[in-house]
Fold this protein.
Amino acid sequence: MQSELHSFILWENAIPRSKQIIDHLKKKFEICRIYQMVWPENKFADNLKRFYGITLAQPLEKESICGNGPFLLIIILDKNPKHGKRKTSLGSQTVNTNIYDQKMEYRKILGSGYIIHSSIHEKEANHDLTLLLGKNIEQIKSIII
């Protein structure tokens, strides 16, 4: 099975627990890069709408929960991806279960589903990385792998 790149985002309100999450991610995956990202505060809700698309019904509510300050983008490499069905906000989907299950564990640890995000399949990873870094997943792979 081919390795997969994925993204984890720790929104501002998850930053206080970032060391714990990053240390845990290191045990499960290879961390390729960590970026501190900043969106202008007055454009944060608009950027959330662009990032999440139609799945985000209440961008201002999301912003108030996740924060609108600097956040972390963590690019990881899953060297042993496993795929299966999981119930997502868009219904049942085939996802990388290693990534999806880890995200759900972190959401329990953090006490909120809204302050951490991860891609759950390569299509979403490509979307996230293209939007945040201006490079598609293949371009990023060529740089960091």
Remarks:
- Residues 97-110 form the longest helix (14 residues).
- The radius of gyration is 14 Å.
